[in-house]
Write a structure and sequence with these properties.
The protein has 337 residues and is α/β, with parallel strands linked by helices. The protein contains 15 helices and 6 strands.
Length: 337
C-alpha cells in the first residue's frame, strides 16, 4: 500500500507509535538494569530471551547500555551544595583494553558526610596511575564543583594521595585509616606475635576520651618497644595522623577513624565489575560503576542519617590545622622545637 508523504508531521498517528516506544524503552531499561546489576553483556542475551523476545547481540547490549551515559554524566557533574565536614577517599584497580593491550587503571572514589549527617557520593574518575597528579586532578575537580567545609579527610597512607590532599584540602586534618595502618604495622612483628600486638594496639581506640586515647597510645609504644622496636617506632611516627579523630566528637569516632564506609562501597563495586572482568575501554568503566554509584547515592538519600543530627552541632572549637606532613617536614619541626 502506498503511504502518502506529508510536508510536516507523519501519516502515522502517535497513539499507534506510543506502545512501541514504551516497549522499546522498557527493553532498554531491562537491559541497562541487568548490566548495572552485574550481568555480563554475553549473559544479557538469556535475560532477553526469558522475556519472550528474540536473542540480542553483545554489541546491541553495549549500545543500549550507553543510554546510561546521560544519567551518569549528570550525576558525576552535579554541583556539590553545602559543606562536607568528613570526606573519605580511596582507589581500586580495574582492567581495561587500551592500545591493543590489557592495562590496569585506577578508579578513584570520594564520599562525604553532609552538614545534616547524610552520606553522599561526591565523585568518581578513572586515572592512569594512582599518583599525586591523578589525585590532584580529581580533588580539584571536586573543589570546582563546590566541595567545601572539609574538616577531616580519611584515607590510606598512599604518598601521592597525601600530597594531593595537602595541596587541595587546605585547613583540613588527615586521618590515617586504622585498618590499613594495622596491616602495615603487623608486617613489623613475627606472625606468632601478631594477635597480641593487634589486641594491644586496638586498646588505644577503646578509650572513652581524647586524653585517655593519647595516654594509651604512649603506653602501648612503651610496651612494644623492648620486644618489637620497629613496630613501636612506626606507631610513634604515625601517632598524629592515626589519632586525628580525637579532635572531633566522640559520637563520630567509630565512623571516622577508618576507611570502612568506603571499603563497603568498594565491595559493592567489585561485585558488579568482577562480572565484566575486562572492560573494553575507560568509558565502559565509568558507565557501569557510575550507574552503580548513582544507584547507591539515591539509596543513601532516603536512608536514615549516617551521623545523628544532634551530634553535628557538638564539634569542639578546634583549630583544624593540617596534620599532613611529609617525613622531612616532621624532622624540621622536631629540630625547631
Amino acid at each position: 500500500m502506498a503511504i502518502p508523504k506529508l510536508r510536516e508531521g507523519t501519516y502515522f498517528p502517535e497513539w499507534l507509535l506510543e506502545p512501541r516506544r514504551r516497549a522499546e524503552r522498557a527493553l532498554v531499561n531491562v537491559v541497562c538494569e541487568a548490566y548495572v546489576n552485574g550481568v555480563s553483556t554475553r549473559r544479557v542475551d538469556h535475560v532477553v530471551e526469558a522475556m519472550g523476545l528474540s536473542g540480542i547481540s553483545k554489541s546491541r547490549v553495549s549500545e543500549m547500555a550507553q543510554e546510561l551515559d546521560a544519567l551518569v554524566e549528570d550525576f558525576r557533574n552535579r554541583p556539590l551544595e553545602g559543606s562536607f565536614p568528613y570526606v573519605w577517599l580511596d582507589a581500586l584497580t580495574q582492567r581495561c583494553r587500551e592500545g591493543g593491550r590489557i592495562v590496569q587503571v585506577a578508579l578513584v572514589v570520594a564520599i562525604g558526610i553532609t552538614q545534616d549527617g547524610r552520606r553522599e557520593i561526591l565523585g568518581a574518575e578513572v586515572i592512569t596511575n594512582e599518583d599525586q597528579a591523578g589525585w590532584l586532578a580529581f580533588l580539584r575537580s571536586l573543589e570546582a564543583r563546590g566541595l567545601s567545609g572539609v574538616k577531616l579527610v580519611i584515607s590510606d597512607a598512599h604518598r601521592g594521595l597525601r600530597e594531593a590532599i595537602a595541596a587541595v584540602m587546605l585547613g583540613a586534618s588527615w586521618q590515617r585509616c586504622r585498618t590499613h595502618f594495622m596491616s602495615n604495622l603487623l608486617t613489623k612483628v613475627p606472625k606468632s606475635a601478631q594477635h597480641f600486638v593487634a589486641t594491644v594496639v586496638r586498646s588505644i581506640f577503646a578509650q572513652p576520651d581524647a586524653q585517655a586515647v593519647r595516654e594509651q597510645h604512649r603506653h602501648v609504644i612503651d610496651q612494644l618497644a623492648p620486644r618489637f622496636p620497629d613496630a613501636a617506632a612506626l606507631l610513634d611516627d604515625a601517632g598524629p595522623d592515626l589519632l586525628a579523630f580525637t579532635a572531633f566528637p566522640v559520637a563520630h569516632w567509630h565512623q571516622i577513624w577508618s576507611n570502612n564506609p568506603l571499603e563497603r562501597l568498594n565491595k559493592e563495586i567489585r561485585r558488579r565489575s568482577d562480572v565484566v572482568g575486562i572492560f573494553p575501554n575507560r568509558a565502559a568503566i565509568i558507565r557501569l560503576i557510575g550507574a552503580v554509584l548513582a544507584e547507591q547515592h539515591d539509596e543513601w538519600a532516603v536512608a536514615r542519617r549516617y551521623l545523628p543530627l544532634h551530634t553535628l552541632s557538638t564539634s569542639p572549637p578546634v583549630n583544624f590545622a593540617p596534620l599532613i606532613q611529609l617525613p622531612h617536614q616532621r624532622k624540621e619541626a622536631n629540630v625547631s622545637a
